[in-house]
Specification:
about 525 residues; mainly alpha; cell membrane; membrane; Poly_Biosynth_Transport; Polysacc_synth
Length: about 525
């Protein structure tokens, strides 16, 4: 896969992921105002176990299939991938049904020990469990397209799935509370069932793409060498070897959140904080702030999905030069985009929180501390994807388990010392430990040298510092007559400060030509379209 094709595929999937994440972010503005803090807490209690179950239901197989198909396509053995795809659809349908049944009937066990009624949490978990029937099947099709280095179907289906889901969330919750005289629990049940409705929409898009592109995919079968005869048993053995690390990577963030779910409120109450205040703080951390922080991480998610087939291809072909070039480009672009986004979110935490949820001192403090952790989320996602691409996926199990152990061991002690900030610090240390292990393994097994990335990282940090200085100066000037406690004025603060910082950041990047080193001829094409070049 060429460097330009890597960037193109990454941009397509990045765009789709960012749009999906942005939609998933902005819906919380009306949703929070409709159901309140108690409603968002109830919603989060159901979504954390659902996310864990959906990752187990897919068993990492869609992304593993992407890697598998890329490997055999590189060998021009196209029929191997098609054979796996047909069988995999049946397997994923069955695993989805099993996962649905397990989550539905274990919901009461997952609902105990919370400050809200167990029967309310149970009903909400059961409402979201129906999505498990469709999502694994849908993810398998996405993996098939990604294995053919076609990112468009995944990107478009993600956006459609999110749009359908959000419309149902907002409309359902509003109608139930305003017109049907329902309560908060009923509204949240409708909001969680929206995951099933959205999945139906996403699946419809993928089916359309399959019908449209099947003739082209069939043409590849005509070019098949036919020298590899591999049984389904051997296929699934290889897939399962690939899949186990994908499962853990997919549920890494939900597992960290689940540790908070079972320890956070208990630790807060033990130091004299009321159950209600502890529950509100949990919702602010793991729902409201997390929704904002996860946006920069969407870049890493897109990279992860794109990296697996492209790095696998370079690794199978033993093209070390191409592999090192892709790794250099990936780390640098990731930091170039994620670092300023996370830093800017931290700087503008107060107006950001006000715009989305209303002004709150605790919310501002949590978001300001939590925002930089986005860089750790992104680095973990990408380094784990790289390990899978170079066939060292077994190390992702060690790195994640180490990170979870650090989080679990330190979470309650740090919460007792620093309250909500303690949970953030424990998450940072846990992810930091996992990332260090991943980087060490990458260096050893790919013989990759980090010298260029380290030098460019220092440059990106310096540019980010100049960006922050500019944004902070403008923000301080504006707060002389605008209040971050006002939603409309906060929006002006965000827009003007972010534009000022962005202009400085990208101006320096152009002048030093760093942006050309990272994005190549894509920059010239974009500038030409915008008519910004002389």
């Amino acid at each position: 896969m060429s460097s330009s094709k890597l960037i193109r595929g990454t941009f397509i999937l990045t765009l789709g992921t960012i749009i999906s994440k942005m939609l998933g972010l902005f819906y919380v503005i009306p949703f929070t105002r409709i159901v309140g803090l108690e409603g968002t807490r109830l919603y989060q209690y159901s979504y954390i176990p659902y996310t864990i179950f959906i990752s187990i239901a897919t068993a990492g197989i869609p992304l593993a299939v992407s890697k598998f198909i890329a490997k055999y396509n590189a060998m021009e053995e196209y029929s191997v991938g098609r054979k796996l795809f047909k069988s995999g659809l049946v397997v994923m349908m069955c695993s989805g049904i099993v996962a649905f049944l397990v989550l539905y009937f274990t919901a009461p066990l997952l609902s105990t020990g919370k400050d809200l009624p167990a029967e309310d949490i149970t009903s909400v978990i059961r409402a979201v469990s129906f999505a498990l029937i469709i999502v694994p099947f849908m993810s398998m099709i996405r993996g098939f397209f990604q294995g053919h280095q076609s990112m468009g179907p995944s990107a478009v289906s993600q956006v459609v799935e999110q749009v359908v889901r959000i419309v149902f969330v907002i409309a359902g919750a509003y109608i139930i509370l305003k017109f049907l005289d329902g309560n908060t629990v009923d509204a949240v049940k409708a909001a969680t069932f929206a995951a099933f409705v959205g999945a139906v929409g996403g699946l419809a898009v993928l089916v359309w793409y399959w019908v449209k592109r099947k003739p082209g995919l069939d043409e590849l079968l005509e070019k098949d060498k036919g020298t590899v005869d591999i049984s389904l048993k051997e296929m699934y053995k290889e897939i399962l070897i690939y899949a186990a690390p994908f499962v853990l990577v997919g549920i890494a963030n939900p597992l960290f959140q689940f540790i908070d779910q079972i320890t956070f409120e208990r630790a807060m109450v033990s130091i004299g904080i009321s159950e209600t205040a502890a529950g509100d703080a949990f919702s602010i951390l793991n729902f409201q702030s997390h929704k904002l922080v996860i946006i920069p991480v969407s870049l890493a998610t897109a990279f992860s999905l794109t990296l697996v087939p492209s790095i696998t291809k370079a690794f199978v072909e033993n093209d070390r030069k191409s592999l090192n070039r892709q790794l250099n480009q990936t780390f640098q672009v990731l930091l170039f985009l994620t670092l300023p986004a996370a830093a800017g979110l931290s700087l503008l935490a107060e107006p950001f929180y006000t715009v989305f949820y209303g002004h709150m001192d605790l919310g501002t403090e949590v978001l300001r501390m939590y925002a930089p952790v986005a860089i750790f989320f992104a680095l973990y996602s990408v380094t784990a994807a790289i390990l899978q691409g170079i066939n060292e996926q077994k190390w992702t199990i060690l790195s994640l388990l180490t990170g979870l152990l650090v989080k679990f061991a330190l979470n309650m002690p740090l919460i007792k010392l620093f309250e909500t900030d303690g949970a953030i610090l424990a998450t940072t240390l846990g992810y930091g430990a996992a990332i260090m292990i991943n980087l060490i393994v990458i260096k050893i097994f790919s013989k990759y040298q980090f010298r260029l990335v380290v030098r460019r990282s220092f440059l990106i940090v310096i540019f980010g510092g100049l960006m922050l200085a500019a944004a902070a100066g403008v923000y301080k000037l504006l707060t002389g007559f605008l209040s971050p406690a006002s939603e409309f004025q906060s929006l002006i603060l965000i827009l003007v400060s972010a534009i000022a910082g962005g202009i400085v950041y990208f101006y320096i990047s152009f002048k030093t030509r760093l942006i050309y080193f990272l994005f190549g001829d894509k920059v010239d094409k974009l500038m030409g379209k915008l008519k910004l070049r002389a």
